[in-house]
Each structure stands twice: as structure tokens, then as C-alpha cells.
Amino acid sequence: MNTKLIIVEGLPGFGKSTTANIINDILTENNIKAELFLEGNLDHSADYDGVSCFNKNEFECLLSNSGEFKEILINRVIKKGNHYLLPYQKIKNEYGEKFSEQLLSTIFKNDIYELPLVQNIELITDKWTDFAEEALKNNKTYIFECCFIQNPVTIGMIKYGEQKEKVINYVSTLSKIIEKLNPVLLYVEQDDLEFSFKKAFNERTKEWSIGFIKYYTNQGNRKALGYKGLEGTLKVLEARRELEREIFDRLILKKEIINNSKYEADKYKSMIIEKLSLLEVL
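Above: the chain sequence. Below: its structure as C-alpha cells.
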């Protein structure tokens, strides 16, 4: 069976987006129909970004306090079972400042990645199940950046400080859902975590950097441990890397580690082609 899903994982600044784009180019060059989903895609086939979830009472309460946006929210919400899924980031992008920060803040509290872990797992596994069923029907290969390992680890370990087995089981559940897609996992590594992350930290926006450090150091027990700033964030990233590598080692699917330490574009592309050939994608 042809590979219908290629997953690219790794830490921030390690080159996941670059790798995913290169893979997309390679598949296209080899006449393989592909669809690329990078981190932050609001139309992701297997994940939620900028989407909040409400039950019926919660959504009705939201509507009663949404003013002129009441009809817009009613028209945009997606009802799935007992869940009311609201793609608030798309609405915000469309209406800009008219969509008040107060309303946005209220809706964000129910973002799928702000919900308790049990609810998050339920919603995300359901989304992956729908994706897998649809992907089996399509004659193309999907390329996903970072939503398979990164997101469960981020919400499980970073946000809620859950035991590692619970996080590992979360990813394992997703792995079982996609096994019929003959998936391939490529994990991007760097020799020097500190150098790579600091490079990304300096290249990206100040808003991203501040938000990232706050998320990584102000939750769970890390605030109590005195984790602060860039150095505290690096300690958490080291722990995340250790957990992700353990998850990688445990997963039973076709997988390879790709080292992107040298930042040599042509050689890196050749290495990826070699790995994809070895994994029988090409």
C-alpha cells in the first residue's frame, strides 16, 4: 500500500517547516499528489487550530453575550454530536477589530487546547478518526507538520504536567488510528538544542518569543521550580526532547531520524530523498 501520510516532528527551530516543504517538493517532483499542512493551518484535516468547543448551554450563554456577532456565531458554529465547534480565529481574521478582544478572550477559554486533557483527547482522537477514514478514499499523500507528537506532548506535559505514560498513550492512540494509512514519521534533530532554539528565538517575532517562554515556564510546577526566561525554557525543551524521543522509539510504524544540524539545503534535500526511498515512499 502507498504511504498516505508523512508526519514531520521535532522541536521548535529544528527545521520542521523546512523539512515538510522539501518533502512536498520531492513528492511533486516524483508525480505523487500531495497536500501539505503546516503548523497553524486553520483548515487542518486532522487537528484543530483556533477552534473552541462548547456544550449546548455554554454556547447559548456565549450567544447571549455576543452582541452583534450572535448571528455570525450561529452561522459559523459546527455541531458535531453534543459539541458546538466554533472556528473563532477565522472569524477574528475576517472581522479584525470589529471582533472585540473581550469576546475573543471569552471564546478562547474554550479553545480545544485550553480544555482539560480528557476533553482534548476525546476531540482530537475523533478528528483524527474522521481524517483517517477520509484519507483512505483519496488518492494523495498528506504531509503533516508537528500535530502528531508535538501537540499531545505540549498539552499533556507542558500545560498539565501529566505523567509521561498518559502522554505516550495519547500519541499511541493516534498511531493506531492512522495505521491503515501506512504512515511514515520523520523526526528532525539538531546536535545543539540551545543554538538551534536561540536562532529561532532571535529570528521570530517578539510576540512569538514572549508567548512561547510564558507558556513553557509559567505552567505546571515549573513556576514553583523557578524556571524563568530563555534558560528556563531550554530546560523544559530538554525534557520535552527526552519524552518525544521515547515516544519515537516506542511507536510501531515506519520512521527515521533526520539530522538538520548543518543547514546545507542541497545535502539536506538529498538526505530526505534517501530516507523517503528507504521508507518506500518513493
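The chain has a mean pLDDT of 95.
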